[in-house]
């Protein structure tokens, strides 16, 4: 039995907004599951339906195996934590934390002051216990809100971007605290965020949503190492995965060429990857390369490599990100959000292509995962350099490509399994 089960759950808001589209997903007992996606993808709506604050338009929600679509929120044994921490302003920190217990909710063997003291200790706010909320910083207020939710020991935590109002340092600190606290309480957590770092560091499993559609679900390693769609590949990881359009040309019994226009990479024919990609002979696919799959080498070195000229670079202290113009076609899936490299390189997204990539032939009738969005020519291929290595705009560079670390996606943006 799972703690939360969603079976083909949809939510349509007035005005025909399809916020959640036939979502099926389980959250196991004791699991910390993060719902990840950009603003407006339907994350909060999912959470609110599990909390009982919204009713599904279609599909079933089960809590502990019991049908729960119509169960009132207070009967769900769930605690919700929002990004704005609505504390009672006239009450002290201690009274805020103890309030749910005083309402007569479960408290086990603990007395209220004891439970409040333990909770404040666990959250590192024991010395603030007599203060009022307006005498606290944002981070301290959020700790109190956490304490108030945790003190009841609910079976299920529903958290909606609880850290997004905090500064970066506090966020990092509270990330670890939240995940260790809820694990200590043996609670199940459904946690909503648009922040991939939170997702990858806190989650047992991550579910990636896009426009109300579940794209992928798996452990942080699984979704990062084997993203199910191009969208997930681009959403997870900094810098964003390089996604390049390539034509597949098979040279039977010899190799499979990934043709980027002016240059190509070759997969050995006898390699499993070569065989999988060979099925797309004569078609365009998208090849994904994370920055870590690339390393500069001296020109003329044996092995697979790509050449380009430095268009620009960014010093980040511990590393320099180098953007090479390699004269290929880069894909940026729609909905990925910020595109700092586009702005910097001066090129603009040419248009929004819905239904097909340029050069991919007939528009598809398949609705999901197809909407790939802006495409631009003259790709920048981003890779990392250690700091202090001299680099100049316009400099020619050859990067070795770690062929085993490449990802392949078909024209619908779906992973090509190898
Ligand atoms: P954010 O991170 O910005 O909170 P989200 O991923 O949580 O975004 P939702 O709040 O679930 O997204 O919204 C999903 C879609 O449903 C959006 O298009 C939103 O405008 C719409 N929506 C949400 N609530 C309502 C409502 N009460 N009435 C109409 N439309 C709504």
UniProtKB/TrEMBL annotation:
Q: Which GO terms describe its cellular component?
A: ATP-binding cassette (ABC) transporter complex, substrate-binding subunit-containing
- PROSITE patterns, from UniProt? ABC_TRANSPORTER_1, ABC_TRANSPORTER_2
Report the InterPro entries cross-referenced here: AAA+_ATPase, ABC_transporter-like_ATP-bd, ABC_transporter-like_CS, ABC_transpr_MalK/UgpC-like, Mo/tungstate-bd_C_term_dom, NA-bd_OB-fold, P-loop_NTPase
Where on the tree of life does the source sit, at the highest rank?
Answer: Bacteria
Which one Pfam family would you cite for this protein?
Answer: ABC_tran
Q: So where does this one cross the membrane?
A: none
Report the GO molecular function annotations: ABC-type transporter activity; ATP binding; ATP hydrolysis activity
Keyword annotations for this protein? ATP-binding, Nucleotide-binding, Transport
Asked if the record carries the keyword Metal-binding, the reply is: no
Where's the ABC transporter domain?
Answer: 4-236
User: SMART domains, alphabetically?
Assistant: AAA
PANTHER family, sorted: MALTODEXTRIN IMPORT ATP-BINDING PROTEIN MSMX, OSMOPROTECTIVE COMPOUNDS UPTAKE ATP-BINDING PROTEIN GGTA
Q: What protein name does the entry list?
A: ABC transporter ATP-binding protein
Which organism was this protein described from? Glycomyces buryatensis
């Amino acid at each position: 039995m799972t703690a939360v089960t969603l079976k083909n759950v949809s939510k349509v808001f007035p005005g025909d907004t399809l916020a959640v589209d036939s979502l099926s997903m389980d959250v196991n007992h004791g699991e910390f599951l993060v719902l990840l996606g950009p603003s407006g993808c339907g994350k909060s709506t999912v959470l609110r339906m599990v909390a009982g604050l919204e009713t599904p338009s279609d599909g079933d929600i089960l809590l502990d195996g019991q049908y729960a679509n119509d169960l009132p929120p207070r009967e769900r044994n769930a605690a919700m934590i929002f990004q704005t921490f609505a504390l009672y302003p006239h009450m002290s920190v201690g009274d805020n934390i103890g309030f749910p217990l005083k309402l007569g909710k479960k408290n086990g063997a603990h007395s209220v002051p004891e439970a409040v003291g333990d909770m404040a200790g666990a959250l590192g706010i024991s010395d603030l216990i007599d203060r009022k909320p307006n005498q606290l910083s944002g981070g301290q207020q959020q700790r109190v809100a956490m304490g108030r939710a945790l003190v009841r020991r609910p079976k299920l935590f529903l958290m909606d971007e609880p850290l997004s109002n905090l500064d970066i340092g506090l966020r990092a600190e509270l990330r670890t605290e939240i995940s260790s606290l809820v694990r200590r309480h043996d609670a199940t957590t459904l946690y909503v965020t648009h922040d991939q770092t939170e997702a990858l560091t806190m989650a047992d499993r991550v579910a990636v949503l896009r426009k109300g559609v579940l794209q992928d679900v798996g452990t942080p390693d699984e979704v990062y190492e084997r993203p199910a769609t191009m969208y997930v590949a681009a959403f997870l990881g900094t810098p964003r995965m390089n996604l390049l359009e390539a034509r597949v040309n098979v040279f039977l019994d010899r190799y499979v060429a990934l043709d980027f226009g002016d240059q190509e990479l070759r997969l050995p024919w006898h390699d499993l990857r070569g065989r999988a990609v060979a099925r797309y002979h004569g078609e365009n696919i998208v090849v994904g390369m994370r920055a870590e799959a690339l390393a500069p080498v001296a020109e003329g070195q044996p092995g697979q490599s790509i050449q380009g000229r430095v268009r620009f670079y960014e010093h980040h202290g511990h590393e320099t990100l180098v953007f090479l113009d390699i004269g290929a076609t880069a894909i940026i899936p729609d909905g990925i959000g910020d595109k700092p490299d586009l702005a910097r390189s001066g090129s603009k997204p040419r248009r929004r292509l819905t239904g097909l990539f340029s050069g991919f032939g007939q528009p598809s009738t398949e609705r999901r995962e197809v909407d790939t969005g802006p495409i631009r020519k003259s790709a920048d291929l981003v890779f990392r350099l250690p700091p202090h290595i001299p680099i100049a705009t316009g400099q020619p560079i050859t990067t070795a490509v770690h062929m085993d670390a490449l990802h392949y996606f078909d024209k619908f943006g779906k992973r090509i399994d190898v």
